[in-house]
Each structure stands twice: as C-alpha cells, then as structure tokens.
Amino acid sequence: MHGYYVPWLYGNANEWVGQAYNYGWNVSSQPQLYAIIVLQDGVQGAMGYGHVGVVEAIESDGAVVMSAMNAGGGPGEVTHNEYYPGPGVSFIWG
C-alpha cells in the first residue's frame, strides 16, 4: 500500500513486534504516518492473534486511523477504524 514490505512474510499479528525487532525495524509506542500499527490480542477489540494495519492519519485527539482488511468488513474489503496509542499497541516501520 505504501511501499513497506515485511521481510518475515507470515506470522500472527501478535508476533509482528518481535519480528520487527529481529529484522532491525523501528518499533515505537508513538504513531508515525504510514507505519504499521500492531494491536496485541484483546487490545481495543483485536481478537485471537491481534491485528495489524497501516496508519493512514493521526487525529488531533491522538486517535490513529488505521486501514486494514478483516477488521469488520467483508472478505477483501478495506476498512478504516480508529485506535488509540497505549498498552498493547505498537508502531513499526522499516
């Protein structure tokens, strides 16, 4: 979507922060535009193995607008949802 390609290719969302560290990517608790947002399982409605998406906007109240698939839409449908930085939320980029 924005030119970021994860070198680890596969894995559950709750493993992406560890994989990012392993590959020398940046990991932060602060949002960055077009970074990958990682929600750990159970955080802000993320189910099972967590969820990942792309930061499309950062709102003035601190909310992060994430585009993702399989987050409330139908199969193959991109949705946009708001999340907030906090415990269990990380941002990664290469």
TrEMBL record:
Gene3D superfamilies: endopeptidase domain like (from Nostoc punctiforme). It comes from the Bacteria. Residues 1-93 form the Peptidase C51 domain. InterPro entries: CHAP_dom, Papain-like_cys_pep_sf. This is Peptidase C51 domain-containing protein. It comes from Ktedonobacter robiniae.
